[in-house]
Amino acid sequence: MKTRGAILVEEVLLLLVAIALISAFAMTVTGVVQSAVGQILGFRNATNNILNGLVDAIRQLIGV
Fold first, then answer.
1. pTM of this prediction exceeds 0.70
2. What is the pLDDT of residue 57?
3. How far apart are the C-alpha atoms of 27 and 49, rounded to whole Å?
4. pLDDT class for 23, splitting at 50, 70, 90?
5. Euclidean distance between the first and final Cα of the chain, in Å?
6. HEC profile of 10-37
7. Rounded-to-integer distance, Cα 7 and Cα 13, Å
8. How far apart are CA 49 and CA 52, in angstroms?
9. Among the listed residues 26, 30, 28, the one whose alpha carbon sits nearest the alpha carbon of residue 38
10. Which of 22, 42, 40 has the alpha carbon at shortest distance from 30?
């Protein structure tokens, strides 16, 4: 038969495991979101550079 102290220790350990799993999940989701945002910003910068190059080429073509 388990004593009251052993049950308390077991509950505390289960609580710590649950907190660790939630923390790991939150860090994974945060990493995925940061990666997606980084890719979106990289695409935006690449698109912006292409558009700037196109505008410069058109300006040279019409002599502005």
1. no
2. 93
3. 33
4. very high
5. 91
6. HHHHHHHHHHHHHHHHHHHHHHHHHHHH
7. 10
8. 5
9. 30
10. 22
